[in-house]
Design goal:
This protein is α+β, with helices and mostly antiparallel strands. The chain has three helices and six strands; from the N terminus they run ααβαβββββ. This is Flp pilus assembly protein TadG.
Length: 179
């Protein structure tokens, strides 16, 4: 009886047929999570590039004109959603502002329009870094924000904000007027 038990135990210990299946079962969840993480990072980088492109393009559209009408501004704001396609446009926030520095280095908002966020008040101040503006010159400031939802909410990373601020000087005049 003891000899039979020893032989059975040797057969079980020496059998390696299921080792690969056990190793795969241990490694597979980690590999799947790693693959999904790489896909998620790729998507996040893609939307980040699109947000940067949107800020640049919107600033360029405004800076090319000398007077922006309400219809043109609506079209420019809609262009932001087209640029970030095929991503969801619902979390997209855009603010376009014309900022002027007068002769006494006073920086004031000339006009501001926004979708999904609050526009700056005309005559108020806006956060413009030093060196962007010169005396008696203006700049078009475009702020784009996007809340990105991830597929890893169970792991504590459910969403994060992507934002871009782009400054561009008007091309046709010193100040882009708003009518």
């Amino acid at each position: 009886m003891i000899n039979a038990l020893k032989q059975a135990l040797k057969r079980v210990c020496g059998d390696r047929r299921g080792a690969s299946a056990v190793e795969f079962a241990l490694i597979a969840p980690f590999m799947i999570l790693l693959y999904l993480g790489a896909v998620e990072i790729s998507l996040a980088l893609s939307i980040d590039r699109k947000i940067t492109s949107a800020a640049s393009a919107l600033a360029d559209l405004v800076a090319q004109d000398d007077v922006i009408t309400d219809g043109e501004m609506a079209d420019i704001m809609n262009a932001g959603g087209v640029i970030i396609a095929p991503f969801n446009t619902a979390p997209l926030q855009v603010r376009i502002t014309s900022v002027l520095m007068n002769g006494s280095d006073d920086v004031r908002v000339q006009w501001s329009d926004a979708v999904g966020m609050t526009a700056y008040a005309a005559g108020g101040s806006a956060p413009v870094p030093a060196g962007v503006l010169q005396r008696n010159r203006s700049v078009i400031m475009v702020e784009v924000k996007y809340r990105y939802d991830t597929m890893f909410s169970e792991l504590g990373v459910s969403q994060f904000d992507i934002s871009e601020v782009f400054y561009l000087r008007p091309r046709q005049s010193i100040v882009v007027a708003r009518s």
